[in-house]
Amino acid sequence: MPAPGPRPLATVLLVDDQAMIGEAVRRMLADDDRIVLHVRLEGAAALETARRVRPTVILQDLVMPDADGLDLLEAYRADEALADVPVVVLSAREEPATKAEAFARGASDYLVKLPDPVELKARLHHHTAGFVAERERRSAFVELEAMAGEVREKNRRLDEANRRLAEMNADLADDVREGQARLDAIAATGAELAAIQDLDLLLERILGDAGRFARAAAGAILVRDGDTLALEYRLDEGIARHERRHDPLPIALEGVAGRAALTGEVVHLAANGDPQPGRVGGHLIEGFVDSSFGCVLAQPLRTATGEVLGVLLLADAAEGFPEEDRRLLAHFASLATVALERASLVRSMILRMIGMAELRDPTETGAHVQRVAGYSIAIFTEWARRHGMPSAETERQRDRLRIAAMLHDVGKVGIPDAILKKPGRLDEAEYAEMQTHTRIGADLFTGLRTDFDEAAREVALRHHERWDGDGYPGAGDPPRGLGGESIPLFARIVGLADVFDALSSKRSYKESWPESKVLEVVREESGRHFDPELVEILLDRIDDLRAVRNRFV
Ligand code: C2E
Ligand code: SIN
Ligand code: SIN
Ligand code: FE
Ligand code: FE
After folding, report:
1. What is residue 56's predicted lDDT score, i.e. its pLDDT?
2. Which region holds residue 224: left if phi is over 0, alpha if psi is between -120 and 50, else beta?
3. Residue 353: pLDDT band by 50, 70, 90 thresholds?
4. Mutation pick for ligand 1 pocket among 499, 504, 522 (CB with most ligand atoms within 8 Å)
5. Is 464 in the pocket of ligand 1 (CB under 6 A)?
6. Among 15, 38, 54, which is best to mutate for testing ligand 2, by the most ligand atoms less than 8 A from CB?
7. CA atoms within 13 A on the CB side of 388
8. Is the pLDDT of residue 178 over 80?
């Protein structure tokens, strides 16, 4: 578990007509600087005060001259702003019937006047912590949905920029003076680019197509990071490649890319007949110190808000960079810009999601997420070995699986705490609502179009499908479980890792089980809940799983 942060501040509203009680409670709480107390003597004004004070707990008297405390409980529950605020009844009455009625009408807790100060403070903090955690989780969920919406909007703009490019290309293609190489370059762009999900692949293609189109001998995409530029993609003899090793280059006016990054304007230096290695017209060409070029074009990758994310650099075009070409290259640059923006948004969304997956339940923190990811990787690595998957491919898939596994339950942020943290068994309606976490999670990933999102979506949606077809959410109308190999491999792996961890761990609704009992269930469920091949792998590699468990306790 992470170190507990400072206690959230408890804002308490006491509604009690007896001024003496207000005074007594104020004294009891006086030595606790994490509690702020408001007192209201008039029951009739309680609702209005609560809306204004925004308490984390309400302490409510039952018998008041101007209002019925039980009616007030219902009024809080019916109020949009107050419905989830815990209400602790503070009453002189001790009869069980009164208590039962108070709970039936919406009370969260019941204390008999005057309570012990230690108990009162403990309850106020306990209810505050639960309330604040749920409120945070909810606002995080709203924020996530907004981010997912933004990513989808970026995708729409990528499609749009791409469509304009295809149109311009088509116009140019009509021009019979254009040579075959240009026609090839033109044919290569278009709808294809929009379908590419992987950022590296996309930027490689944009650079390659732009370079071929301009018939440039060399080129690069440099990505900005603070005060530096890193050469991330290089164009060499018509082939664009992701550059693995890149030293950051300082952004300076002396360099063509630096100048474009600093001014946000295109830098175009035409041939001057005096090529100097690594320079054109006295300007440094970042990343090309040994090459000699006659002309160069640096096109900033500038967002709609004016931020420069990087630079598209092209050098030594066969016929320079005529006006018409420069206009088209600006479109290639806008494609690259949107792709970069989208990627950085997705990256921050993933980090936020992983944080949220830990936020959803204080009793079962980041360690669960880490263990499920660790078990999944261990199982997949052995599966890949048995199936002869090439190691580079295994490596790439492990990265996708790790993120997908960490986010398998991210949809639980959309489930109310009352269900999520229920100490006992869920009833049928509650379990049905709990099951929607699969779809809620999947919806967050739908349409993001990145390299990992399809894996993350499948895992979120399908990790509770069963090999025998009895799982959820299934498909069709009425839905039936997928079953067997129709369940994506990653979802089968994470599903097994998740249950292995749920059984091995303590939950709000169950104790932890010894490993022998866990493995007994896993064996029994081979061919029923679980893919038999994966069960075999799990048993075979149990030492790897133990190592993961010991690392993330
Ligand atoms: P979870 O706690 O992460 O459990 C994941 C899966 O592990 C469960 O999926 C189930 O397949 C398996 N599992 C967990 N505990 C047991 C157990 O005691 N016996 C057996 N045989 N299998 C177990 P499932 O059932 O689809 O539940 C999904 C999620 O719903 C659970 O995630 C948990 O958050 C919640 N949940 C399920 N049942 C209850 C319950 O009775 N009370 C509460 N409070 N939550 C529950
Ligand atoms: C208080 O703030 O202590 C009194 C309640 C109110 O704000 O009216
Ligand atoms: C869905 O049920 O949302 C799509 C079906 C699938 O991913 O298999
Ligand atoms: Fe789940
Ligand atoms: Fe889980």
Report:
1. 97
2. beta
3. confident
4. 499
5. yes
6. 38
7. 0
8. no
Ligand that lies nearest to the alpha carbon of residue 25, given by its number in the listed order: 2
**Region 153-176 average pLDDT:** 73
Q: In 270-309, which positions are buried (b, 16+ CB within 10 angstroms) versus exposed (e)? A: eeeeebeebbbbebbbbbbeebebbbbbbbbbbeeeeebb
Predicted TM-score of the model (pTM): 0.70
Q: Which CATH architecture has domain 176-344?
A: 2-Layer Sandwich (3.30)
Atom of ligand 2 nearest to the CA of 53: 7
Q: Is 45 in the pocket of ligand 2 (CB under 6 A)?
A: no
At which residue do the structure tokens 């999670």 appear?
441
CATH for 361-551 is 1.10.3210.10
Residue 307, token pair as written in the block: 């931020």
Please report which residue ranges of 9-108 form alpha helices under DSSP H. Answer: 19-29, 46-53, 69-78, 96-104
Ligand 3 atom nearest residue 442's Cα: 3
45-57: string of b/e by CB count within 10 Å (b at 16+)?
ebbebbeeeebbb
Q: Which residues line ligand 3 (CB under 6 A)?
A: 461, 475
Pocket probe mutation, ligand 1, options 462, 494, 503, 524, max atoms within 8 Å of Cβ: 503
Interaxial angle between packed helices 532-540 and 542-551, expressed in degrees from 0 to 180 and rounded to the nearest 10: 70
Distance (Å) from CA 441 to ligand 4 centroid: 9
In this predicted model, what pLDDT tens digit does every residue of 242-290 receive, in sequence order? 886 668 888 999 999 999 999 999 999 987 767 788 888 888 999 888 8
Residue nearest to atom 5 of ligand 3 (CA): 475
pLDDT at 188 over 60: no
Q: Closest Cα to atom 7, ligand 2: which residue?
A: 49
Examine residue 362 and say whether the peptide bond preceding it is cis (omega within 30 degrees of 0): no
Query: For residue 386, what pLDDT is reported?
Result: 97
**Ligand nearest the Cα atom of residue 441:** 4
Strands of 109-112's sheet, edge to edge? 35-40, 10-15, 57-60, 87-91, 109-112
C-alpha 23 to ligand 1 mean position (Å): 47
CA of 502 to the centre of ligand 1 (A): 7
Measured in Å, residue 9 CA sits from the centre of ligand 2 at: 17
Task: Tell whether the model's pLDDT for residue 304 goes beyond 90.
Answer: no
If we measure between CA atoms, which residue out of 353, 440, 362 comes closest to residue 134? 362
What are the DSSP calls for 26-52, one per residue? Answer: HHHHTT-TTEEEEEE--GGGHHHHHHH
Q: Where are the domains of the chain?
A: 10-136, 176-344, 361-551
More confident residue, 450 or 29: 29
Residue with tokens 């149109």, as numbered in its chain = 167
Residue reference for tokens 């008999």 = 112
Residue minimizing CA distance to atom 8 of ligand 2 = 49
Asked if residues 466 and 433 have their Cβ atoms less than 8 Å apart, the reply is no
Residue nearest to atom 2 of ligand 3 (CA): 475
The token pair at 383 is 């599966």
Q: What angle do CA 13, 16, 17 make, to 5 degrees?
A: 140
Q: Is 3.40.50.2300 the CATH classification of the domain at 10-136?
A: yes
